[in-house]
Amino acid sequence: MAGKLTAAQGTGILLVTANVGSLFEDVSLSTDKLSVTATVQSHKPHFVAVHCQEVGGKNYEASMSHVDSFVKELLSSDAMKEYSRARVYLDENYKSQEHFTALGSFYFIHESLKNIHQFDFKAKKFKKVVGKETCSETLESTPSLEKEKFPQDYFPECKWSRKGFIRTRWALADCAFDLVNIHLFHDASNLVAWEKSPSVYSGTRQKALGYVLDRITDQRHEKLPYFVFGDFNFRLDSKQVIESLCSTATMQTVRAADTNEVDKLIFRESDNDRKVVLQLEKKLFNYVNQDVFRENNGTSLLEFDKELSVFKDRLHELEISFPPSYPYSEDSSQGKEYMNTRCPAWCDRILMSPFARDLVLKPENEEKSIVYDNIGPNVCMGDHKPVFLSFRITAGAGKPNANKHKCCVVQ
């Protein structure tokens, strides 16, 4: 496994985001479907952080009972046996509409990592991490994290949603940093998303993400480098990408007979027997050639991936070299296929503050030790492919702040 930690080797960090609702909806699915254990075995990190969204699945009333068995199986798996300490935070209280986010944050520490501390937000002190703990009741009062659901007026159409964030704070290898699990709003209708550029949904996500960044950098606690990873629900600019994909097509508008509202848009080639290129409905995005989203990992479409640009001074991302992470087919035999419900997009991301990027990209860090990729590219893992970032923190990378973090540590 990771073996004895040395200063030259650095501390291996693995960050994973996985919107894995379907994992909990089918009791026959094992943790191998998540493939986190395989990724752990491949990269041999000392510290593993897994951020899940939709814990318990979309039908959580029926599926929440599967979560406990999933956690036990993960903690006891062969790949994780050398991880002697763990912290698991599960927001399972679906009966509390005011607070429920369905977020799950898993943290595993390898036995060779001797000095790791977690921040107590109530006591405002770091405390040494020992043993394994799982918290699932009233996370609002758990001192080792901050959890918030977005204000109700942020929700499109004023409907309650599960969207929110969980923040934890860690100190290891002379570094202290925040890890934020986040789930932002989705596109409710392809037709609405197409109406203008940027879409109304993009504006809602921008407002919510700005809220999170303001909260984790306010005056209540010392400002530290931070990693924000989860399901941002970032979408390609619908209007612009459709205009590009259907540049030579003509558009037909079909309206509902009773309301006269737009029901579907049909884009046809001008010649070639008026072949349908794209059919667009509220929950249908049926494009004639899915290969465009897979060829060269779909990177030709990254020019339409614009939602992060608003935060270019506050959030950074390593170069994307994997296909759009959503929406994959949930048919177990169609691991590489996209569903025709939405335009494929890079919803699942690992983003970081400028100072966090400096930790990842320290000159001492060999480029080959940094990997930003998806998990299970050929395997059905539900409608989202998990995304991971593997890197190493070299000893002293967090200085000159390291000394003041040590003085606030409680053994």
From TrEMBL:
Top-level taxon: Eukaryota
GO molecular function, one term: inositol-polyphosphate 5-phosphatase activity
EC number(s) stated in the UniProt entry for this protein: 3.1.3.56
Every Inositol polyphosphate-related phosphatase domain range: 9-399
Pfam families assigned to the protein according to its UniProt record, in alphabetical order: Exo_endo_phos2 (PF22669)
Record-stated family: Belongs to the inositol 1,4,5-trisphosphate 5-phosphatase type I family.
This protein's name: inositol-polyphosphate 5-phosphatase
